[in-house]
Amino acid sequence: MTQPTSIQGEHLPTALSLAASSVPVLPLRAGKVPFGNCRRCANNACGGRPNMKTPGPCTCPHPCHGWAAATTDPSVINSPTWARAWREAAAVAYHPGDAGLTVVDLDNAEAIAWARANLPATRAVPTTRGEHWLYRGAMQSANAVRPGVDIKSTMAYARWLGPGSGTVTALPDVVRTLAVKEPATVRPTFITVPALAGGGACPHRTPAYLDRGISMAVQRISEARSAIHATVYHTFLAVLSTHGRCGCLTDAHVARLFTAAQAKGESPRHCTDAWTNARTTLGV
Question: What does pTM read for this prediction?
Fold first, then answer.
């Protein structure tokens, strides 16, 4: 039998009310952290729960897997397996992204002043040190997008601190842009490519031939949607197989390739490793 609300804790009524409004909730321990996984789910031995839309192999009835445990199902929230968590809970959390919301977490007075000067007004919820600004619309979450500013939406949780004040407005592009990582600055390294044995002449008729090849390589990397590591390596391999022995490649050409790769998430070290491995494979 389900424990009475008075025994389960003061946070259960809040959680049920939020769930009734289609806001997925979960209990938080002291310190604003989720309850740890049960023994069956320890170290994701169950296979994990990658996101709310495709919950994956885990069907654990306990509030496991942090933000992914958030639910709007009252039978789960009010279940005996969640009863202990609610009795010990220090707060209620919710999954903003699955509720169609984005929370801009402003951690101090300076961050609030920046938001007031740069972001559209929306609903504001006071926090211990700052404010949560709520926008209508989901996006990728990101921490430390600027000093004192985090973004909590998909695959994240936020504490429920009350309804706040003001009208929730549409998520602006300026907030979405905050989560977009700028391509890492590439510091070109001069690449010494051996000339053809016997000092053979360059077979490329015009510089445009090489420029076109580099542009095609950059496009191939930029348009990759999966297997980025493999795409970068094979693209580097193709460039070096065509241009790696005649001395045409310069540090500027290599920098273009590295920049394209880093824009897809490759680290400078991965770029260097892929380039070195391609050279080793071709013997250049």
Answer: 0.62
DSSP string, the chain: -PPPHHHH-THHHHHHHHHHTT--EEEEETTTEEPPP-GGGGGGTT-----SSS-TT---SSS-SGGGG-B--HHHHTSHHHHHHHHH-SEEEE-TGGGTEEEEEE-SHHHHHHHHHHS---EEEE-SSSEEEEEES--B-EEEEETTEEEEBBB--EE-----BS--EEPPHHHHHHTSPPPPPP-------PPPTT-PPP--SSHHHHHHHHHHHHHHHHT--S-HHHHHHHHHHHHHHHHTTTT---HHHHHHHHHHHHHTT--HHHHHHHHHHHHHHHT-
pLDDT along the chain (284 residues), means of 10: 45 95 94 88 74 58 90 94 92 96 97 95 96 96 92 94 96 89 50 47 66 87 83 88 78 86 83 85 78
